[in-house]
Amino acid sequence: MTHTKKAVESAIQKLRDEEVEEDDEEANDDGNKVTKPSLTPKTPVELAIDFILHDFEMAEVEPISTYVDFGEREFLVADERGYDHLLYKMAEGFLFTSEGRILDDRLKLNKVVRELQHSRNGVTVITEDGCVYEANYVILSVSIGVLQSDLLAFNPPLPRWKLEAIEKCDVMVYTKIFLKFPYRFWPCGPEKEFFMYAHEQRGYYTFWQHMDNAYPGSNILVVTLTNGESKRVEAQTNEETLREAMAVLRDMFGPNIPDAIDILVPCWWNNRFQRGSYSNFPIISNGKVFYNIKAPVGRIFFTGEHTSERFNGYVHGGYLAGIDTGKALVEEIRKENERESESQTLLLEPLLALTGSLTKSKPETVSNIHKCDIPTQLYLSGKLGIPEAIL
Ligand SMILES: Cc1cc2nc3c(=O)[nH]c(=O)nc-3n(C[C@H](O)[C@H](O)[C@H](O)COP(=O)(O)OP(=O)(O)OC[C@H]3O[C@@H](n4cnc5c(N)ncnc54)[C@H](O)[C@@H]3O)c2cc1C
Questions:
Q1: For residue 307, which atom of ligand 1 is closest to its CA?
Q2: What's the gap in Å between 278 CA and the centre of ligand 1?
Q3: Least enclosed by CB within 10 Å: which of 99, 126, 228, 267?
């Protein structure tokens, strides 16, 4: 069976190679065959360039919205407080905090959501440690990779249109491997931040960057791998990865460079809370895919960078999508309240007519009840209060 499969695969590959060779030749005016430049990168240098242009730069279609809206300058954020700091700052606006610490017990951290039971009345969230939370609505901000995985169970299951949209979105794996050295052996200075390694295996430790500009004296190099190479490296030990990376560096800088003293290999693909680094919508995808990925299912609202049509793949995409989804939910709650008030009014009208003791005109009385009593009752019965914030 394996031999047959191999033979078929080998035949398909041979056919593809022949097609490529034929494509590379075309007849000139005299009917002689001439070789035209190949569109498929073949040499190590062509492969390295192709990797940088497509995998590394995410094959984004020009013009890139982020550059259009925020300018073309790129920044390496080297603030040691990290993104946490921004989140805590923003949280001060709506959670109880003191001296930068969140004291609000509505915020539940380190809870792993495993199941969402949803109906027309509300959503029940069940976590891995057996806690159960009930809410009128839920905003779900897990990554597209997590939505594609089986970490979360939806009960009832998500509708087909939603599942299809989630499946259509590609997940990019983008891995930055950090290597720390006892001293610097690479060129530094203006215009010397990046270097490229050309290898016959596409994306094999191609793109390198030193950290001297952001962290002077840190003696750290970063190499970026993507997709297939990221997954390959995640499946092996850090020692093997270190060996491969050192062989590449010695190929570039000679045999006498020192061994790295530390290595950090993030595993975005195998991390069950990520299952990839960020979304990468196929160029052919249409607006409907975005729309369906973002669209709520009943009382479950979806957010995250993958729901941002303009900035998907980016931190600011996640941030702006969050604001957008928050507003959409507030609007939905407002409409729900309106609907409930209307139905209460309809119920009350016959009652008021029956009492026969109305002194004011009917519309005026009803509108008073509508304005004061009913909303108060709704608040008291907890209809409008979302009991706990689940992050
Ligand atoms: C190596 C790398 C480099 C990047 N470089 C850039 C860059 O230069 N510029 C840029 O703008 N963006 C960059 N990004 C992308 C950026 O990090 C993402 O776009 C951004 O983090 C998306 O935010 P998000 O809130 O949508 O999703 P996430 O950051 O994935 O947040 C989702 C959260 O949900 C949690 N979660 C998942 N499942 C569960 C569960 N079952 N229960 C409870 N919690 C759960 C996760 O732990 C996570 O905290 C990079 C990403 C990577 C990996």
A1: 26
A2: 7
A3: 99
Residue type, 145: G
**Do the beta carbons of residue 252 and residue 246 sit within 8 Å?**
no
Pick the residue whose CA is nearest to atom 26 on ligand 1: 304
Pairing between β-strand 278-280 and β-strand 170-172 as defined by DSSP bridges: antiparallel
Sign of the Cα torsion 251, 254, 255, 261 reads negative
CA atoms within 13 Å, Cβ hemisphere of 240: 6
Q: Which atom of ligand 1 is nearest to the CA of 317?
A: 19
Q: How far is residue 228's CA from residue 244's CA, in Å, rounded to a whole number?
A: 16
Residues whose beta carbon lies within 6 Å of some atom of ligand 1: 112-113, 141-143, 146, 151-152, 174, 176, 268, 273-274, 277-278, 304-305, 313-315, 318
- Among the four given CATH numbers 3.30.420.40, 3.90.660.10, 3.40.50.1100, 3.40.50.720, the one describing domain 172-264: 3.90.660.10
For residue 60, the one-letter residue type is E
Scanning the structure block, which residue is given the tokens 């920044």? 75
The three-state secondary structure class of 18 is helix
Closest atom, ligand 1, to C-alpha of 303:
26
Distance 287 CA to ligand 1 centre (A): 23
Q: Where are the domains of the chain?
A: 1-40, 172-264
Q: How do the pLDDT tens digits run along the chain, 391 residues long? A: 334 344 445 545 555 565 555 555 555 555 555 555 556 888 888 888 888 777 776 656 667 888 889 988 888 888 989 888 888 888 898 999 888 788 999 999 999 999 999 999 999 999 999 999 999 999 999 999 999 999 999 999 999 999 999 999 999 999 999 999 999 999 988 788 899 999 999 899 999 999 998 899 999 999 999 999 999 999 999 999 999 999 999 999 999 999 999 999 999 999 999 999 999 887 766 788 889 999 999 999 999 999 998 999 999 999 999 999 999 999 999 999 999 898 887 776 766 666 654 444 433 333 333 322 222 222 222 333 333 333 3
- Pocket probe mutation, ligand 1, options 233, 275, 278, 312, max atoms within 8 Å of Cβ: 278
